[in-house]
Amino acid sequence: MASSLLTRQLALSLQQNLRLAAPGSRYVSKTATKTVSEFEYDAPSMKTTVPGPKSKELLRQLGEIQNTGAIHFFCNYEESRGNYLVDVDGNRMLDVYTQISSIPIGYNHPALMKVMTNPNNVSAFVNRPALGILPPENFPEKLAESLLSIAPSGMTKVQTMACGSCSNENAFKSMFIWYRNKERGYATPSEEEVGTCMVNQSPGCPDLSILSFMGAFHGRTLGCLATTHSKAIHKLDIPSFDWPIAPFPKLRYPLEEFERENAQEEARCLEEVEDLIVKWRQKGKPVAGIVIEPIQAEGGDNHASPDFFIKLRNIARKHGCGFHVDEVQTGGGATGKFWAHEHWGLDDPADLVSFSKKMLTGGYFHRDELQPDKPYRIFNTWMGDPSKNLFLSEVLNVIRRENLLEQVTRSGKALLQGLYALQSQYPHLLSGARGQGTFCAINASSDATRDSIMLKARNKGVFLGSCGEKSIRFRPALVFKEYHVHQLLNILNDVLAEHK
Ligand SMILES: Cc1ncc(COP(=O)(O)O)c(C=O)c1O
Q1: In ligand 1, which atom is closest to the CA atom of 330?
Q2: Fewest Cβ atoms closer than 10 Å to its Cβ: which of 105, 212, 233, 263?
Q3: What is the pTM of this model?
């Protein structure tokens, strides 16, 4: 009875959500090809500056409860569709930031609405289990259907988690456990180890370390934060570990034009990585693992070549360190491959690959050796959420059915070409366009210019994200078509033309 009532309500909301909006756009290029999915709006539509009056009032109300400094505006998620995010003042923006890169196939996708309205799924939404002790009957089947169907090469195991940080945090723990087990020859831990771990002392709590890179972002929990080096605001006042930090290559773009200089810069960084591994071993804090993003995202969309990553993987292997690829932001298709590290052509797969965001659930894939030897070593109450696996299965169906990775590659090419054109037209404002798939970025001449461009674009109907010191990052959903690229470029062009 209750379930059929819920189903009726969801079906009603589905009908309301599928109502089509009136077309009309002020900014669409006449030359742009128009291919609008049937459930989507066809253009931005702005009624107020953003934030508008309703958003401002809600900001005031929430400000009495929380710090609201990071909030851009309040959203009307019911009215948002596809690539368009609608705010509470009725402004409809082309969303090129997608909830910090975490919306895989746009807002209110009909396929996901169907997952919600399927009565067989209701109990998964209503009853969130403690997965580590009481998983539902269909859990192995659903994992196989969703996550294991896209497991990176060499990996047959997956551990789900809630968010990106807790995925990385537990991936680090897995590397430490694996490293110590190797060191003690897989023998039972000594009484001394068991005793000392209870009071945070060695050898039970060993002085091991994780090597990370300057500019990296791996999350804000305590362990992750020790490997995050993108912005001081994330780290200030928080105690941290004395772990090695290697320089990440500072490359010149476009990469094809600066191959020789970039290769030298990468060689310098790799040399430093090996030096740090040796130094930290001498210091008595051996490096148990290396963690790296395929493209440093929050830190400024910094790229490195496949050759750099392959050599780094070899260094990890040579020194017995785990190799952890953090695909929390790059994973899920935005680079044109499901996993960004597939672009490297590694012979020897990574040891761990963490994910979250577009995957809708957090977690990490790992090699068999990194499976913890005992229960409760990698554990928490929820350890993920089976309802998210249901959504993920459907997202994967849509990606396959609609060839979205090919779509991303096409849209990405159009976007990058457009960014190259804009930077040559406005060289005093923009430079350094770069990207893989639609995972693109461009530098502004200063942080103030970047912020001003982004605000003006928002008021004209394009919502963008920033990264690094002065970069704009483009993080559209996988359903971002060439038509949307043209809308975006036209609006950016208007903003840049008016820029004083
Ligand atoms: C590469 C990377 N790792 C980890 C995280 C942390 O994820 P979460 O914010 O879900 O904790 C992020 C978040 O932006 C990220 O981009």
Answers
A1: 1
A2: 233
A3: 0.93
What dotted CATH number matches 128-400? Answer: 3.40.640.10
pLDDT in tens, 114-127: 999 999 999 999 99
Q: 326, 355, 391, 463: which one is catalytic? A: 326
Dig out the tokens for 232 from the structure: 């001081």
84 forms bridges with which residues in the sheet? Answer: 81, 94
Cα–Cα dist 420/429, whole Å: 12
Among positive and negative, which fits the CA dihedral 444, 449, 455, 460?
negative
Is a pLDDT exceeding 50 seen at residue 27?
A: no
Residue 368 among the catalytic residues: no
- pLDDT tens sequence across 36-59: 456 899 999 999 999 999 999 999
CA of residue 318 to ligand 1 center, whole Å: 28
Q: Where are the domain boundaries for CATH 3.40.640.10 in the chain?
A: 128-400
CA 499–ligand 1 middle distance (angstroms): 33
- Residue by residue, DSSP assigns 101-154 as HT-SS-BT-HHHHHHHH-GGGHHHHH----TTT---TTHHHHHHHTGGGGPPTT
Residue 163 CA: which ligand 1 atom is closest?
10
- Domain at 53-109+404-498: CATH code: 3.90.1150.10
Give CATH 3.90.1150.10 domain extents, the chain: 53-109+404-498
Is 500 considered catalytic here?
no
* Mutation test residue for ligand 1: of 169, 324, 329, the one with most atoms within 8 Å of CB: 329
- Whether 385 is in the pocket of ligand 1, judged by its Cβ within 6 Å, is no
Spacing, Cα 98 to ligand 1 middle (Å)? 14
| 230: DSSP letter | S
CA 251 to chain centre: 22
> What is the C-alpha to C-alpha distance for residues 400 and 258, in angstroms, rounded to an integer?
36
What is the strand order of the sheet 439-444 is part of? 430-436, 439-444, 471-474, 465-467
Give yes or no for residue 298 CB within 6 A of ligand 1: yes
